[in-house]
Target: DUF1799 domain-containing protein
Amino acid sequence: MPQRFALWSCNVQPWRHWLNVQTMWASDGGWRTGLRVSDVLAYMELAGVVVDERESLFQLLQECELEALTVYAEHWQEDEQERAREREREKLRSKQAG
Model:
């Protein structure tokens, strides 16, 4: 079940921008490495973000990006540990069968 959360009213618009840049992740072999800055800057221009507000919005988006990358890394580590446990179980099954 998805977690519910609340935003302070001052963060609603930055959150919408955060959701809108989710297609702008750079990746290396399927691993997210960060948002493509040039794409984010182009998005802000196309979305009509006032020039004076772009720096603060960009900083907020970077904070979200850092948190997202941290969570992705934690999930990857958990997945990798589960894959290692599965490999060990498979070795044990092979030994028992052979």
Notes: Residues 40 and 46 are 10 Å apart (CA to CA). Helices lie at 9-20, 37-46, 51-97. The chain has three helices and two strands. The two ends are 42 Å apart (CA to CA).
